[in-house]
Amino acid sequence: MASRLATFFAIAIFRALGLLPLNTLQRLGSFFGYLAWLLPSTYKQRAASNMALAYPNVTPAMQRSAMQQLLRSVLELPFLWSPRNNARLRHLVSCDHWPLIDDAVAQGRGLILISPHIGCFEMLGPIYSERHPATVIFKEPRQKWLSALIQHIRVAPRLTLVPATQKGVKGLVRTLMRGQTVGFLPDQVPTAGDGVFAPFFGQPAYTLTLVQRMQSLRQSPIFTVGLERLDDGKGYHLHVIPMTSPLSEDPAIAAAEMNAALEAMIRRMPTQYLWGYNRYKIPSAARTKV
Description:
The chain is an alpha/beta fold and 290 residues long. It contains twelve helices and nine strands. This is Acyltransferase. One of its GO terms (biological process) is glycolipid biosynthetic process.
């Protein structure tokens, strides 16, 4: 009962906020992000540490901007997930590489999209699936109300969400075998046994091997993508970087190649990456592999 009430109120709040203009929500995000940057927190400390690994000369202004971008990414969701704004979203996203994507899909070997948690990553699936069907793997939240909220509002006619389980992986395989698109956010720490250690901004990070295994099924092309948030509510730009060669058959080398591709996307818009995520944590069962 409590979970149902929480879901009801969460949906109601999202719908109400979705009535506000995008630039208003993003300005609110910037304001609350500035306040969050002023206050001490574990997230702030970890973000500063992780950002310094990638940018030794990082400035306070960059760190502040990263916190503001984080809160923008949260506050803009009601607008982006509101069905009433679907028609507007088509005009808010620009991309110079749709023909490249269209040609890759037309080859019939499937397409693998990978993205770091950067920019407006929540909208990658809905935006892409307006053009091509796609299946995206995600980690279900532990909170039942949040999971129900996501299932209610993070929907698109040709977008399939599958959990990060064996059943979900089978769904990804079926999608690739049909010659369609699968999507990953592979900068998350996988469960022990599903990864290898590979450098990420010069530090060993436990990294997903599933992308390499999926590519080996049909030698599907891999594109790194990132949806950059433009200033003042002016919309988003979809960046697309194709991998020029297949991932190595060696899982550790393949993981390093994939992380390098993610780094290249992050360097295009460094303050929009979720630096506060605990990327370098080690699952207990993987400690013997360090």
